[in-house]
Design brief:
Elements (H helix, E strand, L loop, with lengths): L4 E6 L5 E7 L9 H12 L7 H4 L4 E5 L1 E2 L2 E2 L4 E6 L20 H8 L5 H7 L4 H17 L3 E9 L2 E2 L7 H10 L10 H13 L6 E8 L15 H10 L4 E6 L10 H4 L3 E3 L5 E3 L7 E2 L2 E2 L4 E7 L10 E3 L6 E3 L10 H23 L5 H19 L9
Antiparallel strand pairs: 1-2, 2-6, 3-6, 4-5, 7-8, 7-9, 9-15, 10-15, 11-12, 13-14, 16-17
Bound molecules: flavin mononucleotide (FMN).
Flavin mononucleotide binds next to helix 10.
């Protein structure tokens, strides 16, 4: 796995959305049900709209697989669109504030914003989630787990229980809103219902945690190699995400240095460890061996049933932005996309660190890196440059 990279293709109302992943090692027994489960999780979530009732996402593997095992060749994933009507789709000349419509119409020189919407739409995130579910399987094989959960919707703040990731995952999967705070779920449902009844929409925030991430992913050597920057971009490039925090995030700006930075100590066993994790597992653009903790904020859905002030691009007359059937709140779905994006970004960073062609080689290399790190932390082999 010299490098891992991926792209998506496809339009919202075309035949489907695709992801092509390059650099998945040979010999991964791909669990297709896991990918479908991730797709189903993206479709669920209280507050989603009619489009999700039309779609029932399932992945088809078009390349890179033989008898259920990856071949090391490009892996192509297809998620078909049931709502396929790109050539018959209505003209969209009243751009919706908060969408790509207006900027895209200017950029691509069209008065039909549907041309822009087809690709800018969050339907594309189905492909990211499918790709992320593959990345998560590779990471899981080397002991790295990623989980996202919702921690606020509109005005309702939710608790993120301090539980092992597996226990947290069980709560999140059982939750209607992708959260770990069952006690406040009814309040969130009421807030979403109230927004729907008022013909309005809601945003919110979600947390992404990764455990088992070894130190040294990312690099301080060039700005674009820094893991913090890459993870921030991975979350910010999700449709509707407007802010990202790492560790203490914005709150760090209010702390004194003595309160903020995570002390390095020797624990009971004499090994080096940290007593807090305000850094969110990243220092100097590299993972530091602690859990990665990220948080993202999503703006409210810009498609409002009552519409927002706009202009008809054909006539120049004031108009109400066109309304497309829409979610009231997509934060639970966006959190699933966030989990996928973090998994994909961590796999990219891991592939830079470890060169291998097969899963067996990957596991061997990661285990050997982990034992070197353990020796270092136990002050047994402080130098392992070779
Ligand atoms: C999973 C997901 C589902 C979304 N569903 C909708 C939707 O149903 N209606 C809508 O107007 N926006 C929806 N959005 C948000 C828009 O895609 C987003 O606000 C728009 O692309 C502009 O965001 P940007 O300015 O960050 O690009 C969704 C976003 C995500 C991540």
């Amino acid at each position: 796995m010299a490098t891992f990279s991926w792209i998506t293709a496809g339009e919202s109302h075309g035949p489907g959305v695709l992801a092509v992943l390059e650099g998945v090692p040979k010999g991964l027994a791909l669990n297709v049900q896991d990918i479908d489960a991730a797709l189903a999780r993206r479709q669920r979530g209280y507050g989603r709209g009619k489009r999700m009732q039309i779609e029932s996402d399932r992945v088809s593997i078009l390349s890179g697989l033989k008898q259920g095992q990856t071949l090391g060749s490009p892996l192509t994933l297809l998620v078909k669109n049931n709502d396929e009507r790109i050539d018959q789709y209505r003209t969209l000349t009243r751009p919706r504030p908060g969408h790509a419509d207006f900027a895209g119409a200017l950029k691509y020189g069209t008065r039909d914003c549907a041309d822009v919407m087809e690709r800018a739409s969050a339907r594309e995130t189905a492909a990211r989630v499918a790709a992320g579910a593959v990345a998560a399987q590779v990471l899981r094989a080397v002991g790295i787990e990623v989980l996202a959960l919702v921690d606020s919707i509109g005005p309702v703040a939710l608790d993120v229980p301090r539980l092992p990731l597996s226990a947290l995952r069980a709560l999140v999967l059982a939750s209607e809103i992708g959260a770990g705070d069952a006690a406040r779920e009814a309040e969130v449902v009421r807030a979403i219902d109230a927004a729907r009844n008022a013909h309005d929409t809601l945003g919110g925030t979600f947390v992404v945690r990764a455990t088992g991430c070894m130190a040294g992913l990312g690099s301080p050597m060039q700005w674009r190699e820094r893991l913090d920057g890459r993870l921030a971009q991975a979350l910010l490039c999700i449709q509707g995400i407007k802010a990202v925090e790492i560790g203490a995030g914005f709150a760090a700006a209010t702390l004194r240095g003595s309160q903020c930075h995570d002390p390095i100590v020797r624990d009971e066993s004499g090994a080096l460890s940290r007593t807090s994790n305000n850094a969110g597992g990243i220092e100097g653009g590299m993972s530091n061996g602690m859990d990665l903790v990220l948080r993202a904020a999503m703006k409210p859905i810009p498609s409002l049933p009552s519409g927002l002030p706009s202009v008809d691009l054909l006539t120049g007359a004031p108009a109400i932005g066109v309304y497309e059937r829409s979610d009231v709140c997509s934060v639970p779905a966006a959190s699933v996309v966030g989990e996928a994006m973090v998994a994909l970004t961590l796999l990219e960073a891991l592939a830079e660190r470890v060169t291998c062609a097969t899963m067996a080689e990957l596991i061997f290399e990661v285990n050997s890196m982990r034992s070197k790190h353990l020796g270092f932390l136990a002050l047994q082999n402080p130098v392992f440059g070779d």
